[in-house]
Design goal:
Two copies of one chain form a homodimer. Chain A is α/β, with parallel strands linked by helices. Chain A folds into three domains: about 170 residues, MoaB/Mog-like domain (Molybdenum Cofactor Biosythetic Enzyme, Chain A); about 80 residues, Alpha-Beta Plaits (2-Layer Sandwich); about 150 residues, Alpha-Beta Complex (Maf protein), CATH 3.90.950. The first copy, chain A, is built from 14 helices and 17 strands. In chain A, the strands form four sheets. The first copy, chain A, has a six-stranded mixed beta sheet, sandwiched between helices. A five-stranded mixed beta sheet of chain A has the order 14-13-15-16-17, sandwiched between helices. The radius of gyration of chain A is 26 Å and the shape is globular. The two termini of chain A are about 45 Å apart. Chains A and B meet through α1, α2, β2, α3 and α5 of A and α2, β2, α3, α7 and β10 of B.
């Protein structure tokens, strides 16, 4: 049976334009992966009458309704109450969940639970409860007259955790087809050239299908197959992934790898190597990305954010004559920064970034977007010079940190690093 | 007269979760500034029947309908046609606009206009046309039976340009009220306790109103007033902002300041001081946040990401006997890290972070969530010990970086730093 879903976000802050509705996007992606068609997104404020109106419209045109938000402890969190009124279900207090919420407060917040959190332990009669390990608001799901209603929390990271752990498994049980996807991760080719390259292939493909998704400065190619079993879907996907990967060559940095830093961590672990960073214009983004990964200490020793020239000289030991002759944003300085980071940390390999991220040119007049990536290795030192153009500061910083990981990845896989 | 608006986004790519609906957020913000209440956001696919259904619902509950998307030249761009059918208006070809679109192609795309672009020159009879200097799809607006319908393009940059140049002036003519908001930014008090504290005040306030918005580990209090003029709204807000700020005391770190790092940058600039960082468990997040701000080099010299103990010793000069006796995650090490960062960079003040971000306890068994923030100053060294609880790794890293800025902010404003 084919399902039709509507996503209803509840929150006045969305209607005031304070935040963007990323939850609708994330849920839609997950449902697309399950073969469930989403035909409507709706946003209403923290207003019970308008939420009731939205539910009355939704139950006529969808058989899966997913709400986000309004599960919190405050007086304007009314999603559960309003849904129960609309669908004629009583709310029931779950004392075991109340204990869990009290425990969360004592353990994580070191205070007694405020009394208004009690409403977070009340649920519709006869529902499946979705626990929330990263917040206080559990979610839930029930079926009424052939309509499945799922309630998820509003804060995106709580919603995502519950979506993955509870809502997706719940919905997968409703559907007979299995959808499997694999992501071919690439860096170094834009979305348009990628689509040009693959147009012939993509236009002839329906199942499996191939679609491009652009992240800033990366393109993810998603191959998706629908079949009766996961094994069947995998068998349909394998030749497509293999053919496209071979066709694209070394711009592919991994299959189902979340980011370039994950690819680098894997390569470093395989060699049992450690690395270090020296960052100027990226200001710690390369370090932050690698240390966001659990277990980073196996491969990452540390680094220096040498924002001032005096720190490049004093902490990294970049020779003053290089800084004087070529300036802070130069190939020579990038090389000396990487060598310095490798030396002071004792790492096997070190990557450096120096450049002009803007909005103004650097003090010597180097234009915005000029960036040098250095790489110090046991075999010698390399450099990738870049002109990233007059982009926004945060885009240049993101893109430069991606190039730093790409230089590392290419070296560790035996490819030339000087060009992306 | 008070208006009620609904925003309808048209585009299957939104329902597939390929893109996020930033247009709804941007239009909502603009309308809030005009005193127009947005009660609904709706998203439908490129499907004429479902768009017609959405329009039929919207015209019953809103007197301003703003659509985005579906104004392009392809066969599935059906917004104008569907709106004209729903509201019973004929479409009329505007030959002058057809010429403009032909010219755009010749000038910017260097090709002849494809014939399917002709539909972009057709408009509802008796409408106001919104020209599009940054794309080929003009927008338009008309009134029918007391409902104003505005059609804007889907690509965000084109939408924003047209919103500002045409839609906002069109809507301003419909409304007499102005809405002004100010954000009271706080750190150190959760959303629930904040609401408990302010419940009495908040429940008695309608205009100006007061609402809380939680960011991870911060709470923003927004005070909003509606009046005939901006000056009148400001006069209504001033006593509220003053009273609430005084009531909350030193958890308030600024009014209309985007984040703690911005507050620190301002305080450092006032003193003409520079600062430095030494980070272990935050892995560069403090450095990354300050260097995300344009002009950071005026106050930030640089820092060390001392992820390994050997880097704490070798680069920051943390004495080996301190590391041996107390371990990497300890008050003593936090103090020595801050002192080391201050010494090696020559900054006036330095902040350090060391802790166990998880998922596993540190090598000496320090539990996840234990974090120490050090601060080295010309007056001596301070430390804030924290137990952030068994949160997710990225939440601990975010929260710890917020505490680092809070310690810096409190010191620079003459407050004790040991407790948040």
């Amino acid at each position: 049976m084919s399902h039709t879903a509507e996503i209803i976000a509840v929150g006045t802050e969305l209607l005031l334009g304070n935040i963007v509705n990323t939850n609708a996007k994330d849920i839609s992606q997950a449902l697309a992966g399950l073969g469930i068609s989403v035909f409507w997104h709706t946003v209403v404020g923290d207003n019970p009458q308008r939420l009731k109106d939205a539910l009355d419209i939704a139950r006529k045109r969808a058989d899966i309704i997913i709400t986000t938000g309004g599960l919190g402890p405050t007086y304007d969190d009314l999603t559960k109450q309003t849904i129960c009124e609309t669908f004629g279900r009583p709310l029931v207090l779950h004392s075991d969940i109340l204990d869990t919420i009290r425990g969360y407060f004592e353990r994580n917040v070191h205070m007694n639970m405020p009394e208004n959190n009690v409403q977070q332990a009340e649920f519709p009669e006869d529902c499946v409860i979705f626990d929330n390990p990263v917040g206080t608001a559990p979610g839930c799901a029930f079926e009424a007259d052939g309509v499945h209603v799922l309630m998820l929390p509003g804060p995106p990271f709580e919603m995502l955790t519950m979506l993955e752990n509870h809502a997706v498994p719940y919905l997968r049980n409703l559907s007979s087809d299995v959808i499997v996807s694999h992501d071919i991760m690439t860096f170094g080719l834009g979305e348009s050239p990628m689509e040009e390259l693959l147009r012939e292939k993509m236009s002839h493909m329906d199942n499996p299908s191939l679609a491009t998704y652009a992240k800033p400065s990366e393109v993810r190619l998603r191959a998706t197959a629908k079949a009766a079993t996961a094994a069947e879907a995998e068998a349909m996907l394998a030749p497509v992934v293999e053919e496209v990967t071979a066709f694209l060559g070394d711009v592919v940095y991994g299959i189902d790898v979340p980011g370039l830093e994950n690819a680098c961590m894997k390569l470093l672990k395989e060699r049992e190597w450690t690395f270090a960073t020296a960052e100027s214009c990226t200001g710690g983004r390369v370090a932050e990305r690698i240390t966001a990964l659990p277990g980073a200490s196996a491969v990452y020793r540390g680094g220096v954010v040498s924002y001032w020239t005096s720190v490049k000289a004093g902490v990294l030991g970049v020779p003053e004559d290089i800084l004087d002759a070529y300036g802070a944003v130069s190939e020579e300085t990038a090389r000396a920064m990487a060598e310095g980071a490798r030396r002071v940390t004792g790492a096997d390999i070190a990557v450096s970034v120096t450049g002009a991220a803007g909005p103004d040119p650097d003090e010597r007049g180097v234009p915005v977007g000029i960036v040098y990536i250095g790489l110090a290795t046991p075999e010698g030192t390399f450099c990738r010079p870049l002109d990233l153009g007059k982009r926004r500061r945060d885009r240049i910083q993101d893109l430069a940190s991606n190039h730093a990981f790409d230089v590392l990845r290419r070296y560790l896989t035996g490819l030339p690093v000087e060009h992306p």
